[in-house]
Design goal:
This protein has 118 residues and is α+β, with helices and mostly antiparallel strands. Helix content is 35%, strand content 26%. The protein is built from four helices and six strands.
Amino acid sequence: MTDQALAKLRRLCLALPETTERLSHGEPTWFVRDKKVFVTYSDHHHDDRLGFWCAAPPGVQEELVEAEPDRFFRPPYVGHRGWLGVYLDVEVDWTELAAVVTEAYKQIAPKTLVAKLG
């Protein structure tokens, strides 16, 4: 499950314009233009769960965590800034998560890169 989830998440992130991947705090992390983080993998890093943390539009974290706490959570360190935690050790809708990752990218990327998404 871990390798497969990481591979799928990696494909989603690296499909976006000018993204790079490198380790940050021991976890695979994706950056826009190698500078700003928009998604970080969390392989049991702070608890016993597999997931990822990502930037989110204002209010989305609260809405999703309240509606589906078995799938979404408020991550440590960045949760107070509205970032969203997404569990990957449950049944995953990868089409939905592609939209979540794209929204994370849009929150961090400059407008010129967001415009490339169409």
